[in-house]
Amino acid sequence: MTTATTGRTALRGVVGTSHTRVEGRDKVTGAARYAGEIPFADLAHGWLVLSTVTRGRVRSLDTEAVLALPGVLAVLHHGNAPRVDTDYIGLLGIPPDPTAAVFQHDWVPHAGWPVALVVAETSEQAREAAEALVVTYDEEPHRTVLTTGHPDAHPAGGVMPGETAKGDLAAGLAASAVVVDEEYTTPEEHHSMMEPHAATAMWDGGRLEVVDSNQGTTWIQSELAQMFSLDASAVRVRSEHIGGGFGSKGLRAHQVAAVMAATELQRPVRVVMTRRQMFTLAGYRSPTLQRVRLGADADGRLRALEHRSLNQTSTVYEFVEPSAGVARVMYDADAHHTANEVVPLDVPSPTFMRAPGEAPGSFAVESALDELAERCGVDPVELRLRNEPEVGPVSGLPFSSRNLDACFREGARRFGWAERDPRPGRRREGRWLLGTGTAAASFHAGAGPSTAGVTAQADGGFTVRIAAADIGTGARTALTLVAADALEVAPDRVRVRIGDSDFGPAMIAGGSMGTRSWAWAIREAARELRERLALGTPIPPEGITVRSDTTEALGALAQKERHSFGAQFAEVAVDPATGEVRVRRMLGIFAAGRIVNPLTARNQLVGGMVWGISMALHEEAVRDRTSGALYAPDLAGYHVATNADVGDIQADWVDDPDPDDPVGIKGVGEIGIVGAAAAVANAVWHATGVRHRSLPIRPDRILSAGVPASGGGPHA
Amino acid sequence: MREFGYQRADDVSGAVALLAADPDARFLGGGTNLVDLMKTGVERPARLVDVRELPLDAIEETADGGLRIGATVTNSDLAAHPEVRRRYPALTQAVLAGASGQLRNMATVGGNLLQRTRCGYFTDLSKPCNKRAPGSGCSAVTGEHHNHAVLGASDHCVAVHPSDMGVALAAFDAVVGYETLDGPGELPLADFYLPVGDTPHRETALPPGALITGVTLPPAPVAARSRYRKVRERASYAFAIGSVAAALDVEAGVVREARLAFGAVASRPWRARAAEAVLTGAPADGETFAAAADAELAAARPLPDNGYKVTLMRNLVVAVLTELAEETAR
Description:
The structure holds two protein chains of two kinds.
Chain A: H1 24-29, E1 44-50, E2 56-61, H2 63-67, E3 72-77, E4 107-108, E5 114-120, H3 123-132, E6 135-139, E7 154-155, E8 163-166, H4 169-174, E9 178-186, E10 198-204, E11 207-212, H5 217-227, E12 235-238, H6 253-265, E13 269-272, H7 275-281, E14 288-296, E15 302-313, H8 326-330, E16 335-344, H9 358-376, H10 380-386, H11 404-415, E17 427-429, E18 432-444, E19 451-456, E20 462-465, H12 475-487, E21 494-497, H13 514-534, E22 544-549, H14 551-555, E23 563-574, E24 581-591, H15 598-617, E25 622-623, E26 630-631, E27 646-653, H16 676-688, H17 699-705
Helix pairs in contact in A: 9-16, 12-13, 15-16
Chain B: E1 5-8, H1 12-20, E2 25-28, H2 34-40, E3 47-50, E4 59-61, E5 67-70, H3 75-80, H4 82-87, H5 89-96, H6 101-106, H7 109-114, H8 165-171, E6 175-180, E7 183-188, H9 189-192, E8 211-217, E9 226-232, E10 240-251, E11 254-263, E12 270-271, H10 273-279, H11 286-297, H12 308-329
Helix pairs in contact in B: 5-8, 10-11, 11-12
């Protein structure tokens, strides 16, 4: 590790300097154990059985035959499973998705619904028996296709109001010199993190212990406690290393099924999802059908803006993909209308997936902005700078900081944007047509209440205990740096312990809020500890521990529009003969608060941008209309970008410390994907002269849409 | 997963005998496809006869100047072999365009020829598929089929063969050698895969219990100037949505000999003989190349969502033949 400081944020200390992950060696040598591979004595293995019909009722399960198979210990299903409570509001302020409350009734609301858990001595025995279990159904007709104008579609809230409206939209559009009115679609997308969901549950001295892979141990602890009507103190959840979460690793069927089986058998039970099971049990991003209407003066200044987005949800749970929230932050107009609508279908429940709302919403809005720039004859960067709002377009609140213009100016300079010929289809290199595109990005910057304990040890070291989750972000390392600075010691004297609900309530790794929320709590505890140590009290053998709780401090924060911002730039090559698209260059410049660890922060931002490439060109889960189930739900059928799909990719940032955060953090987990797909799609238009308003932009779609013979028009 | 027996065969006749002794046995090569199918339950063999260690891992010159490639030669070794690279460069390119380095290190030539379609209905036990469960119906015809066949398919099955290697072998008139209890035999690749018809579950003309022992490539001077181009939905690690293996011999602006085969458009590597007939003796120009492609693709019967493949293959044929013609002219 280095302890050198870098210049831009001129503070003494290690925050702002690059450090490799503190658990990096453990991870690359395999010493780091993941939830599905931690050994336990007397461990039994559960295997989930999922419905093969899309809608109906379970008529029968032939459990007798399966119980006679080698090693089989139990078959849990709706006829014998314990009843659980789902009538509560969870830690995130929302009710639980009943999909996780397994085996409570005989009805099947979607394909791949959990209908049984087979428990056996070995994983192989459990799987074989699960596959041998004969389940019969009374099947009913299903509806699984999302279409516009669906009779059951309705505006819906969730994390934000369903609808906002100000001004007269029709009048604004009528008075506009230029109007863009287009529909954009994004497909069903899946998190596809490397590590599958896995949980082991056991009872230990009257206490329920769950070893899991999740995005927040106290979150899962509180959900399980409420669902099983236990005191929170009677439940302990641990989650040491997590191979990716992206919003999918909350409470899911596997943890609940494992707890039921461990209770039934009174021995440890592990349930792991297969990759295919993850495609129906782990949540996903709903497809979206979006319509954007923009009205502007000839110089591109917006007079009217409407953004409506429709997503699907299951019949058991309402999840809103709030795509229409983007313009509530990004662009103002006298007439400004936005709506998120949802329609229940016979499909699994969607959930949070990296930049929920912003990722698909920015594709629509930032594509529409590019179309407006084209029609107005205004440079796409200039168009966005002309439409920078002074205050929140809907809230009217001031921005805590808004450095979007700095991102665009720095990005345009480094990308060489000034040399761009705005006309499409002008650049050719061999069989490739070349084009460049840009898009803006924003993501909410927030913090959630957290507690932390910091202990000064007699040996001069310090231990931080906080129920944080490192889902691959480098949070453990970032918190080590924050703690070191707060304690005014070198980072190697600080040990950060995370992923244990016994460390007390803390924010989850989600909403790009984890590091900021946890850092705040650690800083508070460390400050008080330092004050106590300054009194010169000798440290007893058990150490001196100070605990903090940020609930009050966060509640006292003034209401403001708090967001990270960014500017995305992409250069693509398109072969009009084969429909292949290659992203040659990508640059993202972000204003995302103070960067704690440049090494891992860049990794987060680049990772988001790579996912944006993947979203633009590759990812699409296809639902088979006849069966209502997914087609080829695995990583061979569901394509994510490979290394070869990613050209020269760079992420950097401008100085942007959050004025209201003790460390200056905003959060970098999600903003990297926002606007990335739009930048790629806009570059495809610039290369070919053809707009692609449906993702992903696959070769068949390029070929079916055609490319003008000379690319985009006559050569100058 | 189902428990199964595993035995490693010591020699070819022993392997054939082991398989014959158990109707539920399967040969195991690199396992890169069979093991996946066992995990998903598409294949449930009672016994695996591992043939990967059999002494069939050589690439040797034949008396007439061709190459004989043993069945257990790995894809990696095949692609890297200097004589393959020199005499049949499209074969090396085709193999390297497939899978990943790790998979190519495991996958064998024999197994590559026998790999199964990646049609998502074939690999999903919960859905109808005539290839997996004869008579259950084809889900793809009315379902998801944007990467399904446009040539030689039937109402019973529109799956495509996934091999890249096989496309180059088809262009170069490969002959498959095999061993049975009754002795050795041979099948030209052109006759190796059966027409789809109403029996899509019957994929090859190999006699029951036969073990592929190798592939023979006859001498083909034209193949020294050959090329494989593969189009897929990401830049690596995906099956083709269309591919072309082509070889061209041009003299004084006229095509003397041409070889052309298509991948990802049919249930087998598709030798484009109608196109070759148009090319032979015609001027080596874009017009001829387009006419050749059209002659082959006249038989195409696209479904609602895979008509782009006809455009794609036409464009690919013209692009690849143009590149080869330009190289020849230099």
